[in-house]
Structures are given as structure tokens and as C-alpha cells.
Design brief:
The protein has 222 residues and is an all-alpha fold. The chain has ten helices and no strands. The protein has two domains: 137 residues, no CATH class; 70 residues. The protein is 65% helix and 0% strand. α5 runs antiparallel to α6. It is globular and about 55 Å long. The N terminus is likely disordered.
């Protein structure tokens, strides 16, 4: 019997390009936007990113694709997930990072697609992923929940994620990082729920809470 040949795993840049082109096709946007996806890749693939990288953006877009519920503006939400961490920096505040992402999106889409895409809605949904307030509607809630799905990962993946975040903040000493990270995680535990949508709350609330509590115990014992 011939040896079984395992299917080739598509390289991450190829998966990125393929998924971006599917987005363009779905939205009826032309080839002029292909280089936008290439520039967006460069943003996410910048040095110093270990979690907020191309894998995270692709995971968010895939989660939206798999979501079974209704969405008011699918195009705006998908673009928001593509761009929400485009300007992410561990040295900036969440407000500064999201404002930078909004600026990148507007620079790429406002002139060429202003009549095809609801620019203001995309910007609103990008801003919502700061997680600084309760969502104003279902699409905001969905954007926020999808951005946080990593919190509900299996233990090994969650631990890897926590390590990735520490590497992004390697410019901060251990004590300072533990304090800042613990306070960030506590914000989700203080809320009435970690996830805002019924769908993700039902599927992931319990595991996300357990992961956060486990990481907090490590941070507070350091």
C-alpha cells in the first residue's frame, strides 16, 4: 500500500490573501483593494506582535463566518474585524490603538468605497472593540465577543495566549505587568457576563471565566 500523503497546510500569507479576496468578492469590491489586504497583512505582521497578529484577525473573520445568528450589517462587521487591531501597539493605550486602526481603515476605504461601505459603521464597530463600555446593539456585541473568543480556549492554547501577551509587553517589568494584566482581566469578571451575546455566552462563558480565574491566580502569586 502506498504511503498516505497528508494534505499540504496552506501557508498563513496564502490563507490571508485567499480570505481577503473572498471578502472583496462577497462585498463586490474590485481588484484595486487587493493591495489593501497586503498592506493590512504588513500591519498585523509587524515586529513585536505575538497575539495581535495575522492569526488573530483571521480567527475573528472565521468566527464571524461561522456565527449562526442575524447580523445587521455583515459587510461593516467583517471589515471592522479585519481592521480592529491594524494599529495595535502594546506601548499605546487601547484608545490610541483603536483610533489608529480607524484611521488606517478610513485611509484605505473612504475615497474608493465610500458609496459601497458604511464607513461610519465600520469605524463605530472598530471602536467598540476597546471594550470600554457595554455594546449599543447586537453588531457591537458580536464584534466585542468575537475579539474575546481566545479567552475561552482550551487550557493549553489559553496558556500560550497568556505567554504571547507577556511577550508583547516585555518592555514592562514583571511586577508592573502582573498588576496591569490582572486589572485588565478583572474588568471582565466585574461585568454581568464576559460575553454579551446569548450565543457566545451559552457556549463559552464558563470556560472563559475559569481561564481568567486561573491566570489571575498565577499573576497574583507572582
Amino acid at each position: 500500500m502506498a504511503d498516505r500523503v497528508e494534505p499540504a497546510v496552506e501557508a498563513l500569507p496564502e490563507r490571508w490573501a485567499s480570505r481577503w479576496n473572498r471578502t472583496l468578492e462577497w462585498m463586490g469590491l474590485g481588484m484595486v483593494f487587493i493591495p489593501v489586504g497586503e498592506r493590512l497583512w504588513d500591519c498585523y505582521a509587524a515586529a513585536g506582535r505575538f497575539h495581535h497578529d495575522p492569526r488573530h484577525a483571521l480567527a475573528c473573520v472565521k468566527a464571524l463566518e461561522d456565527y449562526p445568528g442575524s447580523i445587521a450589517d455583515q459587510d461593516a462587521l467583517e471589515l471592522a474585524l479585519w481592521f480592529h487591531d491594524a494599529a495595535y501597539s502594546a506601548r499605546a493605550t487601547p484608545c490610541e490603538s483603536r483610533a489608529g486602526s480607524v484611521e488606517i481603515f478610513c485611509r484605505e476605504f473612504q475615497l474608493l468605497a465610500g458609496d459601497l461601505v458604511d464607513i461610519n459603521e465600520v469605524c463605530r464597530l472598530i471602536t467598540a472593540t476597546r471594550h470600554h463600555r457595554e455594546p449599543q446593539d447586537r453588531d457591537e456585541a458580536l464584534a466585542m465577543d468575537i475579539d474575546l473568543l481566545i479567552l475561552a480556549s482550551e487550557d493549553r492554547r489559553y496558556d500560550a495566549y497568556a505567554g504571547e501577551i507577556r511577550r508583547e509587553y516585555q518592555h514592562i517589568d514583571d511586577q508592573g505587568f502582573c498588576q496591569q494584566r490582572a486589572e485588565y482581566l478583572r474588568t471582565f469578571m466585574r461585568r454581568k457576563s464576559i460575553f454579551w451575546t446569548r450565543h457566545f455566552r451559552r457556549l463559552h462563558e464558563k470556560r472563559a471565566g475559569a481561564n481568567i480565574e486561573r491566570e489571575l491566580s498565577v499573576l497574583l502569586s507572582s
